[in-house]
Amino acid sequence: MADVDQGSAAPTETSPALDSLNATDTNGTDVNGTVAKFVATPEGTALAYGSLVFMALLPIFFGALRSVTCSKSKNSSDMPETITSRDAARFPIIASCTLFGLYLFFKVFSQEYINLLLSMYFFVLGILALSHTMSPFMNRVVPASVPNKQYQLLFTQGTGESKEEIVNYEFDTRDLFCLAISAVVGVWYVLKKHWVANNLFGLAFALNGVELLHLNNVSTGCILLGGLFVYDVFWVFGTNVMVTVAKSFEAPIKLVFPQDLLERGLDASNFAMLGLGDIVIPGIFIALLLRFDVSLKKNSRTYFYTSFLAYIFGLGLTIFVMHTYKHAQPALLYLVPACVGFPVVVALLKGELTDMFRYEEVPPETEGEAKEETTETEKKDQ
After folding, report:
1. Catalytic site residue from 3, 25, 278, 293
2. What average pLDDT score do residues 5-17 get?
3. What CA dihedral angle connects 223, 227, 230 and 231, to 10 degrees?
4. Taken in order 188, 189, 191, 194, is the CA torsion positive or negative?
């Protein structure tokens, strides 16, 4: 959703919990007590929207690249969560129930206490997400001469032959250092709710989502994006539920950038916003197309770059329509047709449409079980 709010006397957040592109304006009050409406300059607006687009592209690009590597990982902390067609069909319904549930919670219970619980929840999640995001970078920066001890956190269930792994998390000294840095950012966010700390957590959440959430095939991606297309349009245009929740919801589930940065610096408070759902949902589809490119073994990334450019086009179109009509716009209304339509047209022109829809990803654990069964069968045959 995209929205411009110019009638509030304090900073408000009108972005939906997961799917929004918004601009909110802060009004100042003069010495006589009258409200003076802040109007963003063209330069400030352009800087804000340009920065949001740039920040949105970072987790999609790097998350997609990392998704190729993590699809082969044996470490439980890096293994992806595979989304099937059944999961994709259920997701818009679950998202709708969650959104409406939050709406009722904010109507019945105190907003202050709910946001306190949410702050603690996202404090923990944000530290883990940011630490996981920083880990590869830290491995490249820290010299090999620095001691690096290995650790393993292992939880099992049962005994003997029935023993089953629940958690098998491997980490090292560098990961602990990343965790410490992330904790500092987490404390900063909880105490100050600063927009820079919010963005660090938001980028980490988005990158981890694109990296670790894998669609099993293109058909599943179409089902998911199509369902959320309807979800976004309905909750933005059909009701006030999404806007009400977004105004009350305080959590790093969006990227923000101030339109008054040039005038007020880091203390700026007139924010343009982009919900993480408008990054992660198209992002996991774009990442799938990159893995499809890799599977073709043609040393090209045609579908990845096509969908990536389609995302830029769709997001730019959303901003243009919002800025032109000064009215809320569901971002997925523009992103879904672009991100699905452009690659499909390219595949049709290249004669690879059938290959694209036949491409299937197998979860690492399922692939391992299949290999074990094949080995046992071969042994029996011998």
Report:
1. 278
2. 36
3. -160
4. positive
Is there a catalytic annotation at residue 232? yes
Is residue 175 flagged as an active site residue? Answer: no
Among 78-92, 153-167, 289-303, the minimum mean pLDDT is found in 153-167
pTM comes to 0.83
Longest dimension (CA), the chain: 93
Whole-angstrom distance between the N-terminal and C-terminal Cα of the chain? 62
Q: Are 6 and 25 in contact (CB under 8 A)?
A: yes
Concatenate the DSSP letters of all residues of 239-285 into one string.
-SHHHHHHHH--SS-EEEEETTHHHHGGG---EEEEETHHHHHHHHH
Number of CB atoms found within 10 A of residue 94's CB: 10
Q: Strand 21-24 vs strand 2-5: parallel, antiparallel, or unpaired?
A: parallel
Which entry of 78, 232, 260, 293 is annotated as an active-site residue? Answer: 232
Map tokens 């770059």 to a residue.
305
Radius of gyration of the chain (CA): 23
Whether 255 has a pLDDT exceeding 90, the answer reads yes
Nearby residues of 378 by Cβ (< 8 Å), 6 or more positions away: none
